[in-house]
Write a structure and sequence with these properties.
Layout (H helix, E strand, L loop, with lengths): L4 H21 L6 H6 L6 H12 L2 H14 L4 H4 L1 H20 L5 H8 L1 H34 L3 H47 L7 H10 L23 H18 L1 H8 L4 H35 L12 H9 L4 H36 L5 H25 L9 H12 L3 H10 L5 H21 L21 H21 L12 H12 L3
């Protein structure tokens, strides 16, 4: 489909606007503190928008409708766990990080369990974020390919290059303020699409569309079966499995992931950071629901539309609808919304990757270099992250017969997280956890994950390795159980064998730091 002049003009205006914001806020960007934490100067409402835009990427724009179009709204109720997680995070985790670390969440690991744990957790984050960046870019590539006919590889490279340029120049400040604009644009785009689906003039019956989707089970939240057998069902993932996996996934993101934690550090005050984190998570729910409802309603739309069966691949349903049923001018707005969804996530991820590589690796290896050199290195790492993510995006382009992209993303992300949530909780929750216990826990997690991945059955029913005692459960649970394996093993080894503890261990636990804050607030 060819874009009209008006569509192209709208997209160009959007890109120029984003570039202008990035350039404007880049003035005086001369220190790593400002480049990576904005000198802790961002207000609550901006933290709210930037967190929302960071989480709601093009994976939501394309992937969520694809999943609900094929399997119903199975992912929505697990998303409802997000505010529950954020209540805990905003009260305990946000103030903790703002007192214990300067730029990187993994500084804490170095203080608590030593350099090896810092490298392990930061490397796990880098692997996870680079993969997730690839998912974001490939979903954008799919959408723009159907819109314009451009090859996805060129779309991926173009979006990645544009985003890394303004991120490299403006740092986290550019990320925050461009995310505010992008969050507004993508929210507006979602409402426009919803209206076009339900009030389609070709059908003229919004109730009929909803009824058709309802009778086909597209508004269903999935199987509510609760039994031991559900853990071993590799064909159908029940709502309870998704609840379990998403609770761990949200906890891992908001407790251990630098691209989220960095938003806690940019706020002006502890209160602003906590409030912004909670409101940012809460504002994601209506957007998640809207995109899933749109995808479910697509079934009724195409079912009642004469002579058009719609796309065959779930991940193509959204871009197919937009390219065939959105009029000129409005299409440009939607395209800008898709770009906004992608770029808001990409920019945050690129900056956080650069932060980790600069703070946890470069500055650790070369602690005496000047801040100017660290800043130059950080900017260069933005470029490196963009190149790696673009390469992964090309490799992730969907093949025939592959499962929906969002489900692949969830499964892979839970696996490559490497038990990091378990390790952080081991440090946060108990003063008894030792360095020895942590390292043995990491080893146990890696052994467990390797065994499960090698012995799980693939689509053809075969295994890479048959150990005799093999992984038979739902694949999505591999990464989830890894966190428990690490925490339990680490705690037991610490209690039995002891090991090194830092002198200030009491202040490196959430309870210890909370008690210290209470003492500081007491009148002398």
């Amino acid at each position: 489909m060819k874009l009209s002049f008006l569509d192209i003009l709208i997209v160009v205006v959007y890109l120029v606007g984003i570039a202008s914001i990035g350039l404007y806020v880049s003035r005086g960007m001369r220190t790593t503190r400002k480049f990576f934490t904005a000198d802790r100067s961002i207000p609550t409402w901006a933290v709210t928008f930037t967190l929302m835009a960071t989480i709601v990427g093009s994976g939501t724009f394309v992937g969520h409708p694809g999943t609900s179009f094929e399997k119903g709204m199975i992912l929505f109720l697990p998303h409802m766990l997000l505010p529950v997680v954020l209540i805990i995070v905003s009260i305990w985790i946000v103030p903790f990080y703002r007192r214990v670390v300067k730029m990187s969440a993994y500084e804490y690991m170095g203080q608590r369990f030593g350099l090896a744990s810092r490298i392990y957790t930061s490397f796990g984050f880098l692997a996870d974020r680079t993969f997730d960046l690839g998912v974001t870019l490939v979903t954008t590539g799919i959408a723009l390919y159907i819109f314009t006919g451009w090859e996805p590889i060129y779309v991926i490279l173009g979006v990645g290059a544009f985003t890394l340029v303004y991120t490299m120049i403006g740092g986290i400040t550019a990320v925050a303020w461009t995310n505010v604009a992008q969050g507004i644009i993508l929210s507006g785009g979602a409402l426009i699409i919803l209206g076009r689906v339900l009030f389609a003039p070709e059908i003229g019956d919004p109730i009929g569309i909803i009824k058709s989707s309802w009778h086909a089970g597209k508004y269903s939240f999935g199987s509510w079966e609760f039994s031991w057998r559900m853990l071993f069902d590799r064909e159908t993932t029940t709502i309870w499995i998704f609840f379990f996996a998403y609770f761990i996934q949200w906890s891992r993101r908001y407790v251990t992931d630098q691209h989220i934690i960095q938003n806690y550090l940019i706020a002006k005050t502890d209160k602003a950071a906590s409030r912004g984190a909670f409101l940012g998570a809460l504002s994601c729910l209506p957007i998640f629901f809207t995109f899933m409802f749109i995808g479910a309603s697509f079934y009724g739309f195409f079912d009642l539309l004469p002579g058009d069966a719609g796309p065959l691949k779930p991940d193509e349903v959204m871009p197919y609808f937009l390219s065939h049923f959105i009029p000129s001018g409005v299409l440009g707005l939607i395209l800008a919304a898709i770009l906004a969804a992608a770029m808001s996530s990409v920019s945050a991820d690129l900056n956080s990757i650069a932060t980790v590589l600069t703070t946890d690796y470069f500055s650790t290896i070369l602690p005496n270099v000047s801040d100017r050199v660290r800043l130059l290195f950080g900017r260069f790492m933005v470029v490196v992250g963009g190149v790696l993510a673009s390469t992964i995006a090309v490799l992730l382009l969907p093949k025939d017969g592959s499962e929906p992209l969002m489900q692949r993303a969830i499964t892979i992300a839970t696996i490559i997280s490497g038990g990091t949530l378990g390790l952080f909780l081991l440090g946060f929750l108990t003063r008894r956890a030792t360095r020895t216990g942590a390292y043995v826990g990491i080893a146990a997690c890696l052994i467990f994950t390797s065994w499960a991945l090698l012995s799980k059955p693939n689509g053809a029913g075969t295994r890479m390795v048959d150990f005799g005692f093999n992984w038979e459960m739902n694949t999505i649970l591999i990464g989830v159980f890894g966190h428990f394996v690490l925490f339990i093993t680490g705690y037991l080894v610490s209690r039995i064998f002891g090991g090194y503890l830092p002198e200030n261990v009491a202040h490196l636990t959430i309870r210890g730091l909370h008690n210290k804050r209470i003492e500081e607030d007491l009148p002398q």
